[in-house]
């Protein structure tokens, strides 16, 4: 559990630094290439938490009454199920939002490239093709 939590922290720091270095344009290309990596710090952190909690279940079984152990086990399984459903919902929404951002940034890039071409064409003399400023 410690290794998973440490790995999630280091991966999140790496992603944060990469996004800061790349800037807006580079981030789009980075996310297009490594789309699968964006949600991994959350996954690793949640697995670390699950393993931390699971490591205490044998201690509870040994030190407390049977009803406490069953209560903790049922409550823990219910919480893990609800957390899993919430995690899947959040991951799907994040993937959808990332896809929308990539499509929007590509449209903006195409529009800006088109404006540059129009500006370059308008700076030419139509008859001679000589550029002027």
Overview of this structure, please?
It is a single chain. The chain is mainly α and 133 residues long. 85% of the residues lie in helices and 0% in strands. The protein has three helices and no strands. The longest helix is centred in the last third of the chain and has 57 residues, at 66-122. The model has no long low-confidence stretch (mean pLDDT 79).
Concise structural overview:
The protein is an all-alpha fold and 133 residues long. Helices cover 85% and strands 0% of the residues.
Query: How many DSSP helices?
Result: 3
The Cα radius of gyration reads 26 Å
**Strand and helix order:** HHH
Low-confidence stretches: none
How much of the residues is beta strand, in percent? under 5%
Largest sheet: none
Q: What is the CA-CA span between the terminal residues?
A: 64 Å
Helix content percent band = over 70%
Mean pLDDT level = 79
* Number of strand segments: 0
Q: Any idea what the shape is? A: elongated
Q: Helices and strands: which structural class?
A: mainly alpha
Spell out the key features of this protein.
single chain; 133 residues; mainly alpha; elongated
Give me the secondary-structure topology:
Layout: H1 2-33, H2 40-63, H3 66-122
Helix pairs in contact: 1-2, 1-3, 2-3
């Amino acid at each position: 559990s410690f290794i998973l939590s440490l790995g999630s922290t280091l991966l999140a720091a790496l992603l944060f630094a990469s996004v800061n270095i790349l800037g807006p344009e580079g981030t789009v290309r980075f996310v297009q290439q490594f789309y699968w990596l964006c949600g991994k710090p959350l996954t690793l952190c949640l697995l670390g938490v699950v393993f931390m909690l699971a490591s205490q279940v044998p201690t509870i079984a040994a030190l407390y009454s049977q009803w406490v152990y069953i209560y903790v086990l049922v409550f823990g399984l219910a919480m893990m199920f609800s957390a899993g459903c919430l995690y899947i919902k959040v991951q799907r929404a994040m993937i959808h939002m990332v896809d929308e951002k990539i499509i929007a940034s590509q449209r903006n890039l195409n529009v800006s490239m088109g404006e540059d071409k129009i500006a370059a064409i308008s700076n030419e003399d139509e008859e001679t093709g000589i550029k002027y400023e």
